[in-house]
Amino acid sequence: MFPRLSHMHRFVAIFCVIVVATLMLFNAQTTLGKNRRFLRLNSIMVEKLQDGYSANLFQSVLPIRMFELTTEVPMTTTPPIVNPHNFSYIINPKHICSDKSLKMITYVHTAPVNYKKRQMIRQTWGTREILTKYKGTLVFVMGQVEDKKVMDAVKLESNRYGDIVQEDFNDSYKNLTYKAITALRWISTNCKQVSLVLKTDDDILVDIHSLMDYMNSTVIMKHGMKKLIVCNQWLSMKVIRDKKSKWYVQKSEFEDEFFPPYCSGSAFVMSFDVVQDMYQVSFYTPFFWVDDFYITGLLVKKLNITHMRLNDGYILNAQVAMEKLQQDKKQELKFFHVHKLTNIYKMWTSLNLRRNVSNVGVIWHPTTVAGNSSVKKR
């Protein structure tokens, strides 16, 4: 009896070992399969978020550590996308940054109807000859409008100049943040070789020579080419609660009475890494229609970047722009907000003459251009 009982014990023990080993193997394969599915989902998300993300910053958004691969990782580790920017290109000139020697790109916020303003830039500080001198190029960024004639005109203009990026969001004042993200997206995807990015509005005159001298001799020498944003910084800008104002902000949109520090949207300079990282974090930053605050306030804060103040280089009062230019004996001014296009042409001629350089582009003449615009700058 006892030998048979001992044999049975051995049989039961072996059977239990086999069962336990089988269960452990099954559990390991199941966990591995779940982890593989999780990683595959993250890979798909990375592909869908697209367009040149910064790998280091993205890892901070989707943290995957080695010890987590031994257990199932919950999908809650991925923050929700709250600002997806689900728009498509209407015009997408990828060739603009095909030159691998490019060091700078300028993007200009413009509206489809603002053809004369775009021509002003093409004929003054944004000529191909001038930008090539600084290894730069230029692109105009806009949305779409319902007027078919305007849209057809933009298409013809794009065919001629090849410098327009257009997405299919409605081009309106409350959608300027979409326009800004369009630019971040396009540059992050197509212009990875550049070091500097200049943003302006289409009613800004830039002393591009003075600006580049300053960037090369002061900013880059002292601070390098990373985590850089140079601008006219607003401090304690009051939130407007007047319902009659175009800048009226409801309490439900923004509770505080003053905005944290941000830059005037008229013009500012960034290093490329900032543009790329801004685009990435915009997916996880709720949409806010005040575009200059959203881009240079909310996104910059998330990136933990400090603005470099260049407030003395700006004249944003269009009424005194020409006068201030004449008084600028030390050539410290770099950005001018100007209402009338005729004044811009005059001022551009003055900027070139005071530097003792020949005018590259058009020299102002009373019959050169007509039209004006009145846009207040925040």
Description:
- The chain is α/β, with parallel strands linked by helices and 378 residues long.
- α6 packs across α9 and α8 crosses α9.
- The longest helix is centred in the N-terminal third of the chain and has 48 residues.
- The chain is globular.
Q: Notable features of this structure?
A:
disordered C terminus; three-stranded mixed sheet; disordered N terminus; 11 helices; Spore Coat Polysaccharide Biosynthesis Protein SpsA, Chain A; 378 residues; globular
Radius of gyration: 28 Å
The number of E-state strands comes to 13
CATH architecture: Alpha-Beta Complex
- CATH top level label: Alpha Beta
N/C terminus separation: 99 Å
Can you summarize the main beta sheet?
8 strands, mixed
Low-confidence stretches: 1-5, 31-75, 358-378
Total of helices: 11
* Strand order, largest beta sheet: 1-4-3-2-5-10-7-11
**Count of the domains:** 1
CATH topology: Spore Coat Polysaccharide Biosynthesis Protein SpsA, Chain A
> What fraction of residues sit in β-strands?
15-25%
* Bulk shape: globular
Structural class based on helices, strands and sheet pairing: alpha/beta
H/E series? HHEEHHEHEHEEHEEEEHHEEHEH
GO molecular function: hexosyltransferase activity
Pfam families: Galactosyl_T (PF01762)
Protein name: Hexosyltransferase
EC number: 2.4.1.-
